[in-house]
Amino acid sequence: MSDVLTISQVNELNYEDFIGRFGNVIEHCSICAAVVWRFRPFHDVHHLHQEICSFVDLLPDTGKEGVLRLLPDLTGRLAELGRLTQESAAEQKAAGLDTMTPEEKQLLKDTNAKYRDKFGFPFVICARQNKKEAILKGIVERLEHSAAEELNIGIEEVK
Known about the structure:
single chain; mainly alpha; 61% helix; UraD-like; 2 domains; 10 helices
């Protein structure tokens, strides 16, 4: 089987193989794939994505907060230890976070800590769709938001 599956091949995956393939579609949240598997057959990739988004949208706020707490801090301890998932490492590299100056790293570390203290979950932004400058600016600006605003923004970034 090639790395890219057709929707027919996705629909034919047994439970274990589906979890193996999609268990990290939301980082460290294999329960999403476990639930979504039940909605096969998918008509197309958009239908699969819709079911993933529906799973997240239907969670109570405490569940959404839990999903966000599963995610690593940008350039945090897991990155320093080289223990990010392949997906997170690639996204952080694409954003240029691996080229941050010591001052930028410290700023991100400090604002990440403030953000986590205020909201109870890490700052979430789609790193592959942003560059380090936008990420640094975004975290500072988003510290001014309410908890409800950040919960909604964080979940949209996950989806």
